[in-house]
Every structure is written in C-alpha cells, then in structure tokens.
Amino acid sequence: MPAQPDNPGIENGKANSHDQIKKLACSMERRRAAYEFEIESRNREQTDGEQQPMHPDPGFRCPLIIVCIDATEAEVV
C-alpha cells in the first residue's frame, strides 16, 4: 500500500507510531483533566451545597482508562 499523503499518520500502510502515541497521550490527558474536574465539582457540591459550573462536555461520565497499544505494528484498514 503506498503512503497516503492526506493522512500524515500513515506511512507505507502502517500507522506512524509517534503520531499515534502522541494522539493517545493527548486523549488520555484530556480524559484525565475532565475526570479530575468532575471529581472536584462533585466534592465542592457536597461540601458547599452550591451548583458548580458544568464541564465543557456535559456527557462526560467515563472514568480514566489507560489503554496500552503496540502502535508500531498497527495495520491500517
């Protein structure tokens, strides 16, 4: 499979591991920040009894999940 110029994370049919790991780390960091915000908001609500500002993603209810992958051998479908 030739390189796909429209997707810089793909080279010769395989995922570029650095790009994939960077995306995964950013996703994990965003999820961690959202989870910490949610916990702090709940704690403040319980202690203050006040309504706290909503998280930018009001549907967020997912705990932090760390997923390890071997991105060097990820096949592009």
Which helices and strands appear, and what pairs or packs with what?
Elements lengths: L9 E2 L2 E2 L1 H32 L29
Antiparallel strand pairs: 1-2
Give the SSE order as H and E letters.
EEH
Characterize the biggest β-sheet.
2 strands, antiparallel
Give the neighbour order of strands across the main sheet.
Answer: 1-2
What is the mean predicted local confidence, pLDDT?
62
Helix content: 40-55%
Shape: rod-shaped
User: What is the rounded Rg?
Assistant: 18 Å
Tally of helical runs: 1
Report how far the terminal alpha carbons are from each other: 10 Å
List the uncertain runs.
1-5
Summed up, the domain count is: 1
DSSP strand tally: 2
Summing up helix and strand content along with how strands pair, one would put the structural category as: mainly alpha
Short description:
With 77 residues, this protein is mainly α. 42% of the residues lie in helices and 5% in strands. Strand 1 and strand 2 (14-15) form a beta hairpin.
Task: Give an overview in words.
It is a single chain. With 77 residues, the chain is mostly helical. It has one domain. The protein contains 1 helix and 2 strands. It has a two-stranded antiparallel sheet with strand order 1-2. The longest helix has 32 residues. The radius of gyration is 18 Å and the shape is rod-shaped. The N terminus is likely disordered.
